[in-house]
Design goal:
Length: about 140
């Protein structure tokens, strides 16, 4: 299977397994960027894929509810806020695994559907994400 075919199958698993879960958790947005209002913060979540290997991260951060203003004065609406604009963020699974964690969907030796397994693994790590969002403040990075 080519890298492109693996990516298509991983996207499909994310859209069938994770995105319905995110909608149930009140997230808005579209793949790969999502947001929700909770505890007077905007919880941000994004999927980022490696250009070089079949793996992805789920990165999260917090943002002000009403969007933000950069140090150069540019106003970014809440619907346009992205994880990469924030200074404090987490790759989901990194706390549990004790390292910078990537969801690898290349390991074909695993029995069953590796794409579904990785999507379900994100959900197994969900408690880590919720705890992090609740315990961490907002830190803006964008200039």
């Amino acid at each position: 299977m080519t890298h492109k075919e693996k990516r298509i199958r991983m996207n499909k698993a994310i859209k069938e397994i994770i995105i319905p879960f995110l909608r149930n958790e009140k997230f808005k947005g579209s793949f790969p960027h999502f947001r929700r209002e909770k505890n007077e913060k905007l919880n941000l979540l994004t999927f980022q894929f490696s250009l070089y290997s079949p793996e992805f991260i789920v990165e999260i951060s917090n943002c002000p509810l009403n969007g933000m203003k950069t140090s150069l004065g540019k106003v970014i609406k809440s619907s346009e806020c992205r994880v990469q604009y924030m200074g404090k963020r987490l790759r989901v699974g990194s706390i549990k695994n004790g390292k910078d964690y990537w969801y690898d969907f290349d390991k074909q030796k695993i029995l069953g559907n590796i794409f579904e397994k990785r999507a379900k693994e994100v959900l197994k790590n969900w408690e880590e994400a919720e705890k992090w969002w609740n315990e961490n403040d907002i830190e803006i990075l964008v200039e």
